[in-house]
Amino acid sequence: MVTEPEPPDPHWPRYSTRPFPSYHFVPGRGPHPRRDPRGHSYGLPEPKPTPFPADRWQTSEDYLYGIDLYNFAYWWECHEVFEGLWHTMGRNSEQGNFLQAFIQFAAANLKRFLGNEQAAQKLTRSGLARLQNLPQHYMGIDVIAFSEAYRVISTPLANSTPYQIRLALEPPSSLKASKI
Fold it and tell me: Is residue 173 one of the residues assigned to a domain?
């Protein structure tokens, strides 16, 4: 029995310099990171994310670390990082809406890993709905391509290999041209 999720591609690029936790937390299968003395974050202060404008996402170590956690199947930990950012950025802001979508995608991946496909589907639909009114390129992610790919891998008949996020570290050429 697999007790921890594994990333589809362990050689995927990293975007932050922070080390990963010592284990992937899966509810019911390991010590709770904050509440259990054996937890990987036990006794550590609650993170205090720094706000950043959406067009300066490359400067946010918290955001980049959240993407790394997502890509390497630390979905519970990703959820925690993005939730902190969501509260910091404003729950009802465009940026907050975007972050909440990724909170839901991380939770959907964890639910799917735990075998709760119904909950995973509900979280996926909610996350995809949150992305519908965003610009095509937002905080390094091609929102349309991500939505389409996530929709495909999230169908009940798919092999459900989690989608990994590749950030566009340079703005798309159409955005570069419009800024000149």
Answer: no
